[in-house]
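Weekly puzzle thread! Below is a chain. First person to post its structure in token form gets bragging rights.
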Amino acid sequence: TQSTWGNNRQNVFELVFDDDEGGECSLTLRDLTGEISAEIALRIATTLQSDQISSLTELNLANNRMGDDSVRHISTAIQNSHFSLTKLSLHCNRISADGARDIAAAMQRHRTLTKLYLGNNLINNEGARYIALAIQSGECALKELYLNDNRIGDEGAGHVATAIQRLCSLTLLYLNGNLIGDEGACHIANAVQSGECSLTTLYLGYNHIGDIGARQMGFAIQSTNCPLIMLDLSRNRISPRGAHHIANAIQNNRLRLQKVDLRLLFK
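Winning reply:
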């Protein structure tokens, strides 16, 4: 089913429900003319708490430029809802660390949530800390986390690294397009070889990682504890020397690793 709403500022959006034969449903909100105000977000939050969508499993609110106030209403509704959410899409919504804190609370409420899309927001290091704390809380079953293009630096990467070595369920981590340098790469490299990490797919492309980070990542993928199948280090600041560390590590990896992306590291 599909409905079109509006508010006094002529913001118009579509709220689309998609029911499948198994009784599950997804909800997609598409903004047509402007940003979603806190007032409209509150109306959506009320809808989310109704029995009408108790079978909701996927919620797509991406590309709506909602901001933290609106995200707070949505997060509160998710915490108080009756459905079992498995996928939540919130990329491109101008979410800062404050919004990330509210999302983290919702993550811990919905232990069925396995995919979370938060790319192209503004959560930075502090927001990464909130998300990381939720992951390692024991109340979260997340398997895929997308945090690309969020201004996350070495500190934030350190928070995420701590989370992924705490026997969490995460298998895919997308950190492309951030501000992660050698220090952050070393944190993550240490985590993936800890023996308590479940990551099989790791994206670190379009960051600021240099030869030191590449060398440490090379040590990690040689470890018998490393679960990685795919590693993306494309478009970083790794020289031929750093790439050599990775190449040697690939040759020595006889376990799981199947793909390493090193495109355009140097000219």
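Puzzle host: Confirmed. Bonus trivia for everyone else. The first helix runs from residue 38 to 48.
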